[in-house]
């Protein structure tokens, strides 16, 4: 039986990516090696940052997914997160907008991986 779902994000430098995500999430990694670092996001969910250095993966691997940080708070909290991330210099791909399920915005990590902030639902 699966005990956790780990969403893996491919990065070029796992420690640098961990500092970026740790700052955004306000948490420290739960597991660290030079090429693979995880964050425990709560029961049954982890975020893994994988450099692929042990499998000779190319940094040119296409980015075809996104990490979504689902929030329980409303539009005011989403706007506050957006403002906080902008002040940290996070790359914003799309400013807050309504997609029918609520207000959302899209950002990118230093490797170009997409990060969406949206309502939990």
UniProtKB/TrEMBL annotation:
Residues 1-120 form the VOC domain. It comes from the Bacteria. This is VOC family protein. It comes from Streptomyces pseudovenezuelae.
């Amino acid at each position: 039986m699966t005990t956790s779902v780990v969403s893996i994000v491919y990065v070029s430098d796992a420690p640098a990516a961990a500092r970026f995500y740790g700052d955004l999430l306000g948490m420290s990694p739960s597991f660290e090696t030079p090429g693979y670092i995880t964050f425990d996001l709560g029961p049954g969910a982890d975020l893994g940052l994988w450099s692929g250095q042990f499998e000779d993966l190319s940094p040119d691997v296409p980015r075809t997914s996104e990490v979504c940080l689902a929030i329980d708070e409303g539009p005011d909290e989403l706007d506050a997160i957006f403002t906080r991330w902008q002040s940290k210099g996070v790359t914003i791909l799309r400013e807050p907008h309504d997609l029918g399920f609520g207000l959302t915005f899209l950002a990118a990590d230093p490797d170009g991986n997409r990060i969406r902030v949206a309502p939990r639902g």
